[in-house]
Amino acid sequence: MNESYEKSSSSTACSTPVAGATLPECYDVSDTFYTSQRKGRKYVFRVRLDINGFTLQRESPSGTIVKEQTVKLCDIVGARCMRLKKTRRLAVASACACSAGNPNSPAASVNRSGATPSKCSTASKEDFTCDGDVSAYLYVFAYVLKKKSLRSEFHRERTVLTLRFRSFDTFEDNMREADRWYRALRWQLHRTLESIFVVRNEEDRRRRILVMLNPKSGSGNAREVFNMHVTPVLNEAEVPYDLYVTKHSNFAIEFMSTRCLDAWCCVVAVGGDGLFHEIVNGLLQREDWAKVLPSIALGIIPCGSGNGLARSIAHGYNEPYFSKPVLGAALTVISGCSSPMDVVRVQLQNRSLYSFLSIGWGFISDVDIESERIRVLGYQRFTIWTLYRLANLRTYNGKISYLLTEPEENAQHTPELKMQTSRSCNTHIDKLSTTNNNPSFHHSTEYLPHEFADVISLETSINQSFRSRCDSWLSGGSRRSYYYSVSESIYHSLADDSDFAAQAAISLENRQQNFGPTSSLPELDEPLPEDEGWLVEEGEFIMMHAVYQSHLGIDCHFAPKAQMNDGTIYLILIRGGISRPQLLSFLYNMSTGTHLPEVNNEYVKVLPVRAFRLEPHDNHGIITIDGERVEFGPLQAEVLPGIARVMVPK
Questions:
Q1: Where is the composition biased (Polar residues) (predicted)?
Q2: How many CA atoms are closer than 13 Å to the CA of 155, on its beta-carbon side?
Q3: Mean pLDDT: which of 103-107, 285-289, 436-440, 480-484 is highest?
Q4: Which among 306, 327, 468, 277 has a CA at the least distance from the CA of 380?
Q5: What SS3 class is residue 603?
């Protein structure tokens, strides 16, 4: 957060800004604004900021409310106080920029692409002032749910609510008034955040987040995605971050298991499910894992091929995904809300791993790994290789033992959020002077145009002139800006961290064995106790897939009943002997979640379990954990309910 705003003095509830005054305890602010429309029509608006968000009420001349609109607090990400930057046209204009009827007035061109707002403080006002204009502006950034038509799906649309303050003679006084609203909004936003995301002091501020970026994930465009779509959202929300780019396989495991993480409240994976898998395993290979996991949340920006976790989070909270998946994930990362997430401990022959998504053996794992050779096609590679593998069907011989969950164990439910439409309007409001009672802050009418100009406006994402920027390597192509940049955000190059990499690689094997939750299952080479209710399926299988998220990919609704914190592994078995048309129907309906039978049959079974053991009888095949190939052989897995925390939408 920019210090000029943290240290700016604020005013009380009275209309006159007083330096050094404190905000009222309620942090609710309201005022009356004017608007000037075409044909000389003028309207009066009552604007209020409270626990629900911004409420705009248009009043008739008789004082009755004609129209009301609310920008919900849960849709608002942040705000900025600033003034208009001096444009070239204004620089050469000889007339007063704020004089009546002047077409070059900054008030009249607030929404033009040429009039760019800049961060402003009382110390730097001379550099960016518009001649004669002492107005201060408050820009509020929100992402509201909208529908283009009745038949279209919901999507998040960027909306900018702009308030102009010019009740007083000096820019400093107007900025204090705008700053009062800004601080009230920031307090309202911070009170919705969980305690681990905010530093509680006199000036509440967001804690830093750690961003791990895999430049080779998916189609290899993770850098560009983060630069163009994630950084602006982080800056609008004033969330400082540290960015690390992975250099090699298992880099995130080494980093998360050796570095001190006290400075960060959240770890965000910019990549696919594989990078998130490394982060989870790195955290659980720490000696202090039991202390770190409750104090740090995990987030993901989907840039991979599958993106099962990001899709599962959006599905569980009724958030739109397909229109702008990266935007939705970025808003989730800054939401300040988290939810417990199950993690599955997987014991292999020579090591133990931790999984958050799935364990596969057979058909789906074959498709996932073998399609790597056409990775350039992105997510379509899965469809193409599914058809190829269906034509060349394989079966695998093995034994699967499992412990069914108790009915009451599967009782946790992820809260569902009801999506509602949100209308935008092009309302323009001007600040009403309320300083007649104080002669020292009289309103200077000689600088007021006859028609009030744009002051409050709800803009759509079409106009991106106020889009946040970042003055670093991440902002290639964007021009330098004096505002919106989070100066505390840092890009870390790890080219000189060779000592760290060498030391981490040496101790990686020891951490895998010594740390993390202990297993409640017998050793892999020991028989399972017969008196604990273990059941067995044995014979020829097309596939076995154990899933604990609802989606394996963006359009693979594999386990519709799965929730993030239900303590259940959904074990799906397809036996050999199933016909190709039946298998094709199963695979085709995975996109809608209607592929699973309501009652288990001879070929397809869905088993809610809390632990299972796989013992292949063949000496060949592919086994995957979270989409990553592991050594082939026997394994066993058990669920660790709610051991991790993941970022979720508000």
A1: 101-123
A2: 17
A3: 285-289
A4: 306
A5: coil
Residue 91 parent element (H or E): helix 88-92
- Helical spans, DSSP H, in 93-212: 125-128, 171-190
Give the pLDDT band (50/70/90) at residue 83. Answer: confident
Show the tokens assigned to 603. Answer: 């070929």
Token reading at 44: 């009066």
- Tokens representing residue 533 in the block: 């209710």
Mean pLDDT of 225-246: 95
For residue 376 the two structure tokens come to 């350039």
Q: How far apart are CA 627 and CA 509, in angstroms?
A: 21
CA dihedral 498, 499, 504, 507 (to 10 degrees): 140
Residue type, 104: N
Q: What is the pLDDT of residue 153?
A: 83
CA angle 149, 153, 154 (to 5 degrees): 95
Give Cβ neighbours of residue 540 (< 8 Å, ≥ 6 apart).
395, 396, 397, 575, 576, 577
> For residues 161 and 460, what is the distance between their CA atoms, to the nearest angstrom?
10
**Token digits for 468?**
């946040």
Count CB-CB contacts under 10 A for residue 584: 13
Res. 26 pLDDT band, cuts 50 70 90: low
Show the tokens assigned to 484. 């919106």
> Could you tell me the two tokens for 148?
């283009």
What is the rounded distance in angstroms from the CA atom of residue 386 to the CA atom of residue 262? 44
- The answer to whether 264 and 295 have CB atoms below 8 angstroms apart is no
- The answer to whether residues 485 and 470 touch, using CB atoms and an 8 Å cutoff, is yes
Residue 82 CA to residue 236 CA, distance in Å, equals 13
Domains of the chain, CATH where assigned: 29-82+133-191 (2.30.29), 208-334 (3.40.50.10330), 358-407+518-640 (2.60.200.40)
Q: H/E element holding 610?
A: strand 604-616
| pLDDT above 50: residue 355 | yes
Q: Residue 608 in contact with residue 410, Cβ under 8 Å?
A: yes
Confirm if 446 and 99 have CB atoms less than 8 A apart. no
SS3 (DSSP) at 522: coil
3-state secondary structure of 245: strand
Q: Is residue 201 within 8 Å of 187, Cβ to Cβ?
A: no
**Residues in CB range of 649: below 8 A, 6 or more apart:** 313, 314, 317, 319, 328, 331, 332, 335, 337, 417
> 414, 317 in Cβ contact below 8 A?
yes
pLDDT of residue 332: 96
Could you write out the DSSP letters of every residue in 255-316? HHHHS--TTEEEEEEEE-HHHHHHHHHHHHTSTTHHHHGGG-EEEEEE-SS-BHHHHHHHHH
3 state SS of 441: helix
- The maximal CA–CA distance of the chain, rounded, in angstroms, is 93
The runs of H, that is alpha helices, within 392-532 are: 498-514
438: tokens are 């104080």
* Backbone angles phi and psi of 13, in degrees to 5: -70, -15
Pairing assessment for the beta strands 136-147 and 635-647 based on DSSP bridges: unpaired
Task: Say what the alpha-carbon torsion angle 497, 268, 563, 583 is, to the nearest 10 degrees.
Answer: -70
Cβ atoms of 271 and 218 closer than 8 Å: yes
DSSP, collapsed to helix, strand or coil, labels residue 206 as strand
Name residues whose C-beta falls within 8 Å of residue 1's C-beta, 6 or more positions apart in sequence: 205, 206, 238, 240, 486, 488
Looking at residue 483, its amino acid is: Y
Q: Would strands 76-84 and 117-119 be described as parallel, antiparallel, or unpaired?
A: antiparallel
